[in-house]
Design brief:
Layout: H1 2-5, H2 10-18, H3 24-42, E1 45-48, H4 50-65, E2 77-81, H5 108-115, E3 119-124, H6 158-165, E4 171-176, H7 182-188, E5 191-194, E6 222-227, H8 230-240, E7 270-273, H9 284-301, E8 304-307, H10 316-325, H11 329-339, H12 345-352, H13 357-378, E9 383-387, E10 403-404, E11 407-408, H14 420-424, E12 428-435, E13 441-448, H15 453-466
Parallel strand pairs: 2-3, 2-4, 7-8, 7-9
Antiparallel strand pairs: 1-3, 4-6, 5-6, 5-12, 9-13, 10-11, 12-13
Helix pairs in contact: 3-4, 6-7, 10-13
Amino acid sequence: MFDALLDEDATTLAALIRGGDVSAQEVTQAAINRMEQREPQIQAFCTATPKLALQQAAAVDAKRARGETLGALAGVPLVVKDLICTAGVKTTSGSHAYADFVPEEDDITVERLLAADAVLLGKTTAPEFGYSGVGHNPLFPSPRNPWDLSKTPGGSSAGSGAALAARLCPIALGSDGGGSVRIPAAHCGVFGLKASMGRVPLWPGCRDERYPGVSSWESLEHIGPMTRSVRDSALMMSVMAGPDMRDRHSIPCNDVDWLASLEKPLSGLRIAFSADFGYIAVDHEVRDIVTQAARRFARELGAELDEVDPGIADEGATFAALVAFESDLTGMRHMQAELGARMSPHLSAMLQRDWRAETFTDANTTRKKLCNQMWRFMQHYDLLLSPTLAVPPFPLNMQGPEIIDGRMVRSDHWLSFCFPFNFTGQPAASVPAGFTASGLPIGMQIVGRHLDDGLVLAASAAFERIQPWNHITPVSIGVAHD
């Protein structure tokens, strides 16, 4: 009985707990039981917290028994990416350097979610410091994609995506410095939102200079919700969004009613669609599935759809330079000297590179150019649609395919649709668009104008109504594929 509740969305679960139909402890115990059953296959967690979860659930039930009002996430099981700090709970960032690190404070987002009465099931695995679009790291087993256990769930919010797809929880917290919420959302067949830069404050991640590696990516990183329904992400945003003095980039959110935006009228939209941005090598199944999804979306909304490229060039080198520029190279090089071969090879290679000042300033100039290109392009369109990723999920323990659609490419080329919108800070989401012939999920990216988060959520919710996805479940977790 209680196990079946875990297939409900967070909005429904919170209402049931708030109404007394089920207790938070019953739901939490069911989640723990399911985790014990399915986690050995999925390997989503690096640090499970069942005892803490039951304590938090008991506190929620006690609060209700006293007649107090429960928060928006009353008793809902939550998982948190291991790059995001949790007070009293180990936060390793996937690195031997932080293997025993226990933060003294929660990240702002965790603080807010727990204050809204969410229950923490544990921390989910991520690559070392998040410097990868997949999930393997030197400390823990690689998370596996529930749709095919031999495949990656994507990253860097790898375990969060895998836990959601395996239905171990209804909501997850990820972070996105170059696509790391949208990537696993696409590969795992769930919804992920990167809100506009500053909507969700960050601290101490990316901000606290005491922690090399953890303090990287300041102008690129976003923390965002990952859920099985769009409404649940809106619910999480209603809790997490809003300024905080600890994050100098954080902005007010009075212009967005996160839940009401789901019903926003969408008549008369002008939508741009690009299957490859004019340069990206894209798997033929991805191209076909997303093109059909975009055309169906526009047709059923009665929107105008232009198949047009936004003018974005291949800026993979620019992204790499910006990441290096925003890393504590001195602190991380000291760390590398101590860890040696225990550090991820691709991260060591980045630290060993002899970066030049001009490389960094050129990258910053290019970012400005791209931002200007995009605001000019978006003057003509309300939304931009594209594939989220250039390929379906691929085998574990590789950084990315080096041949796509018959072309030789860099191992990070498959991420090319995502990171430009970390440059610009525009809101961007990934919605499940369909499945390959072999049953692997494919994502469609929905990008909005600067600060138009409400429209991105509204469009995502409309697409979910047109082409629902939450009733389809992976065979690997013991439930038949619809």
